[in-house]
Amino acid sequence: MTNFALLKEPIILAIESSCDDTSAAIARGSNILSNLTASQAIHELYGGVVPELASRAHERNIVPVVDAAIKAAGITVDDIDAVAFTRGPGLIGSLLVGSSFAKAFALVRKLPLLEVNHMQAHILAHFITSDASIKRDVDGFFNSKPEFPFLCLTVSGGHTQLVVVKNYFEFEIVGETLDDAAGEAFDKTAKLLGLPYPGGPLVDKYAELGNPDKFSFAKARVPDFNYSFSGLKTSVLYFLQAEVKKNPDFVAENLNDLCASIRKTIVAMLIDKLQKAAIELNIKHIAISGGICQQRLTYRIN
């Protein structure tokens, strides 16, 4: 009979290349030993991610990033038990670089290969044990592990989804954006404000200094638990055109308040549908994750 107590937790090399960041991590079981990322500044010249340039940069970055992650974890390649990689969704060329490297690495070393769904990985990141200690972050929210079933709002640069997570392998999308993702809404409105790429983080930065109630922008009304953010961009555009016509310095004089008001509108749209879904589906545990979120959060409804 196998003594499972003696089995060591597997060490996994994980490769992420879905967009413009080349990332490699080393995990022992659910504990992260290292996590390194090489970003691509070239896209700032074009005001957005250029897929062809992104894939070329991944080709340059992936070997040194993986090598650095292995060294930072304090292991050698001989200690790796399996290789995981992002299969999608993402930019095809970028994904191809990561998957090709992962497959070659696994083939040469005769290791198991694990394909990972990008969006499901955002959700399951709540179960990483390196920060499993319960700590109150904001009112009612904790960075603890959620209990099944739970409702997860996933907000990344290219996706916005509401997902019912029934177990580690069963996910049901109950709501998603019908056009732009929330991350795109941040970046596109930032561009209207004249902010450089990537504009989303700058909107968030300036919003901290502004009054979120200074200006009001339209919120799209869409059925069920779905989202729509394209109308917000149009609302901001028409508002700015009218105000700049009266005062050419309007944006510069009101930048902090504009950013705060835009951020409040986007967040309110996200939370409104999250609350609606939690109530109608009678789900008591809520999680928030994704690249747009500053941290993973869970919430328990009493």
Describe the overall structure.
With 302 residues, the chain is an alpha/beta fold. It is built from seven helices and eleven strands. The chain folds into two domains: 4-132, 2-Layer Sandwich (Nucleotidyltransferase, domain 5); 175-300, ATPase, nucleotide binding domain (Nucleotidyltransferase, domain 5, 2-Layer Sandwich). Helices cover 38% and strands 22% of the residues. The protein has a six-stranded mixed beta sheet with strand order 6-11-10-7-8-9, with helices on both faces. Helix 2 links the parallel strand 4 (82-88) and strand 5 (113-117). Helix 6 (230-246) packs antiparallel against helix 7. It starts with 10 loop residues before the first strand and ends with a strand.
Write the topology of this structure.
Layout: E1 11-16, E2 22-28, E3 31-38, H1 51-72, E4 82-88, H2 92-109, E5 113-117, H3 118-124, E6 141-142, E7 150-155, E8 160-167, E9 170-176, H4 182-192, H5 199-207, H6 230-246, H7 250-281, E10 285-289, E11 297-300
Parallel strand pairs: 1-4, 4-5, 7-10
Antiparallel strand pairs: 1-2, 2-3, 6-11, 7-8, 8-9, 10-11
Helix pairs in contact: 1-2, 4-5, 4-6, 4-7, 5-7, 6-7
